[in-house]
Amino acid sequence: MDAAKMLLLSPPSTSLPSLKPHSFILAYTRPKVQPRLKVLAMAKDTSESGNGVAEKAAIAGGLVANPVIAWSLYTLKTTGCGLPPGPGGSIGALEGVSYLVVVGIVGWSLYTKAKTGSGLPNGPFGLLGAVEGLSFLSLLAILVVFGLQFLQNGSIPGPLPSDQCFG
Description:
Layout (H helix, E strand, L loop, with lengths): L2 H7 L42 H28 L10 H27 L10 H27 L9 H4 L1
Helix pairs in contact: 2-3, 2-4, 3-4
Keywords: Membrane, Transmembrane, Transmembrane helix
Protein name: F-box family protein
Organism: Hibiscus syriacus
């Protein structure tokens, strides 16, 4: 195809390139160098709270203690006695330690709330926050079941096995 036919077939808004030799201008602009940014302040990572071992121990203890307390409270409400001592007193000991763990987690949470204005950190996978919530629910259940037990029987069972329950 010759140039005349191409000129006729092209749309009117397009412009043809110039056929003059060396008709282009080469311009080089130097890129602007931006100054380097400096970090002035950085938020503290929540995973580096310094209580890593305590958090993991509270998670492990709370995940075991809360179901044991639920079992203990159900047994107390239905039979009027706590959990049986078990082999070598292991179940009774687990029950007693579970009550102490829940009270410890609730105390740690209240101390942290008073000191920082917020509760315990969430911990890995949110487990510490879950254990904290379950511990508060367990404490509420303890107060309700112990209160009902006291109103019905006039007392709550002691920490050691008695003749009334496991004699």
